[in-house]
Amino acid sequence: MIWKIFFTWEDGRKYNIDRILKIERCASRKAGGVGMMYTCMIQGQESHLFYEVDKWFMERKTA
User: Fold this and answer.
1) Is residue 5 part of a domain?
2) Residue 24 covered by a domain
3) What is the pTM of this model?
4) What is the pLDDT of residue 7?
5) Please, how many CA atoms are within 13 Å of residue 10, restricted to the half-sphere of its CB?
6) Predicted pLDDT at 62
7) What's the domain range around 46?
8) Sequence-distant contacts of 45-53: CB under 8 A, at least 24 apart
9) Cα–Cα distance for residue pair 18/48, rounded to 1 Å
């Protein structure tokens, strides 16, 4: 069985997660809190997804 993993951004756009590279316990420096950080490849770019107490989130890029 093949699973497609994706997330939906605030504006409704969907992004496929191409590959999970690493999973580690880590603090989010921008959002605060401590949970599991998933280092993923998304459209050819490395990104971090965080999971903390039944909540998934991604740090927002700042201008």
Assistant:
1) no
2) yes
3) 0.77
4) 87
5) 4
6) 64
7) 14-57
8) 46/21, 49/7, 49/17, 50/26, 52/28
9) 13
